[in-house]
Design a protein that fits this description.
Layout: E1 15-27, E2 31-38, E3 41-48, H1 54-62, E4 68-77, E5 85-96, H2 114-119, H3 121-124, H4 128-150, E6 154-155, E7 161-162, E8 174-177, E9 180-184, H5 189-194, E10 202-210, E11 223-232, H6 236-257, H7 259-264, E12 280-282, H8 283-293, H9 308-318, E13 322-325, E14 338-339, E15 342-346, E16 349-352, E17 357-363, H10 368-377, H11 386-389, E18 399-405, H12 406-413
The protein binds adenosine-5'-triphosphate and magnesium ion.
Length: 434
């Protein structure tokens, strides 16, 4: 079906069929130009009113902005054209007309609010700066997948409709599952761990997670994309190494393949792959550093979670990606292993961008008895998790892993203000459609 020539591939001296959106019409009197846009870029089409077929010229001039046109003709050199070539048409066909009134201006000349943009995402992504974000997101995920393969991981897909939740703190979305109540999964945590005892050993998943966060914030979605990793015979330090590899792999892929998109976003000059060896600071050191900045009203103490202002103060102080390790066991989930030398300290870690948290991970509790105890301590009924705990009785090796929010990765990589800019159709407190 698609035997057209892309705008930026059109070579002078050839005849070509170009198809794309009518970006702009410039009518100068005796001569007029149509600017067509496709996924590669733009190309000029020349209309000479007195010399060309009247009906064809009329079709071109009558077409509304953003209509899809197909133009066939000769490609010629033209210095004054934006790309140095233009098409001298032999035929112009309207493939799909656009209404004269558009709900938002894809040329970007007229600003639109975020709601209008999200309501009309199809038109919004026609803007080069918005399209660039999603091209970069795609490249980043390709880099992530390639890096996981380098780490000898197998890509898995686990259920999103589940019987039980795991991440206390954030709420679950219930769904009706025939006669039973079920939930949308908050995390592939338990399923990826179940695969550690299988012959796969090292797995990753890139998939949706659902969290009934009550409040709209610039950093939370109700449906997000989680990049998850889990590896047998790994401890927290190994998992942190893998985390660094994956994040750097995403940046490297973008640096290698998205030069034009970074240019479009005005980031080409500043874009750097984070240096290997992200600093690892303990939770205790983090508290001291935050307290020393004076950015938080009350002095933070052992056991306190880090508030957003606390995270921001520390991020500014550190100034690059970094890990926070050795968290108090009491504020990390039950499936994270405590340190062998001190049960009040967990092997859990977070990986932070100076702006916010990107990753949570740790070594997992793989000993059946300790695991069941952990459930009880967290006020969860271990029996409800039998499908999970039972597998720890049949040879579950030590293992570690983490989860990385894909939207937060893109948001911080491109310095976007709002996480909604990094997802096509965000789900938040107000937004369920489109
Ligand atoms: P936060 O404290 O920032 O709300 P969290 O600690 O509850 O996040 P985790 O359960 O640790 O989140 O999930 C691992 C990662 O998944 C987070 O570091 C983040 O990158 C991403 N993530 C979690 N919840 C959301 C969400 N609601 N929207 C977007 N990304 C999320
Ligand atoms: Mg976390």
């Amino acid at each position: 079906m698609d035997d057209r020539t892309l705008a930026t591939d059109a070579q002078p001296g050839e005849s070509a069929t170009i198809a794309g959106w009518l970006h702009e019409t410039r009518d100068l009197g005796g001569i007029a130009f149509l600017i067509l846009r496709d996924r590669s870029g733009k190309i000029q089409v020349k209309l000479e009113k007195d010399e060309m077929d009247d009906a064809m010229v009329e079709t071109g001039l009558d077409a509304h902005r953003e209509s899809v046109l197909q133009v066939s003709g000769a490609v010629e050199d033209e210095e004054r054209a934006p790309t140095g070539v233009e098409v001298v048409p032999e035929s112009i066909e309207v493939v799909a007309a656009a209404d004269p009134e558009l709900p938002l201006d894809p040329s970007g000349k007229v600003d639109a609010g975020l709601d209008t943009r999200l309501d009309n995402r199809t038109l919004d992504v026609r803007k080069p700066a918005v399209k660039a974000v999603f091209e970069i997101r795609s490249a980043a995920l390709a880099g992530v997948r390639a890096s996981f393969r380098d780490l000898d991981c197998t890509e898995i897909t686990t259920p999103k409709i589940v019987a039980t939740g795991t991440e206390g703190g954030t709420e679950l979305f219930p769904v009706s599952y025939f006669a039973q109540e079920a939930y949308m999964n908050q995390s592939p945590q338990l399923f990826k761990q179940l695969m550690i005892g299988s012959g796969l050993e090292r797995v990753f998943e890139i998939g949706p997670i659902f969290r009934a966060e009550e409040h709209n914030t610039p950093r939370h979605l109700n449906e997000a994309t989680s990049i998850d990793f889990e590896s047998a015979f790994a401890d927290a330090s190994d998992a942190m190494d893998a985390c660094e590899t994956i994040v750097r792999g995403a940046y490297e892929a973008v640096a290698e393949t998205c030069e034009a998109e970074l240019e479009t976003l005005g980031l080409a000059e500043d874009f750097t792959v984070p240096e290997a060896g992200f600093p690892r600071i303990t939770y205790e050191e983090a508290l001291d550093r935050i307290n020393a900045t004076g950015a938080v009203d009350e002095t933070l103490e052992w056991g306190d979670d880090l508030s957003t202002p606390a995270e921001e103060a520390l991020g500014e102080d550190v100034g690059e990606h970094y890990f926070i390790t050795d968290w108090p066991s009491e504020i990390k989930p039950f499936y994270i292993k405590d340190r062998d030398d001190d049960a009040t300290v967990s092997t859990g870690f977070d990986m932070m961008h100076p702006r916010l948290e990107l990753v949570s991970g740790g070594q997992r509790e793989h000993r059946f008895d300790h695991l069941v105890e952990g459930f009880e301590q967290q006020g969860l009924d271990p029996e409800a998790f039998d499908y999970y705990t039972q597998m720890f009785r049949y040879g579950m090796p030590p293992h570690a892993g983490w989860g990385l929010g894909a939207e937060r990765l893109v948001m911080t990589m491109l310095d976007l203000d709002n996480i909604r800019e990094a997802v096509l159709f965000p789900r938040d407190r107000q937004r369920l459609s489109p």
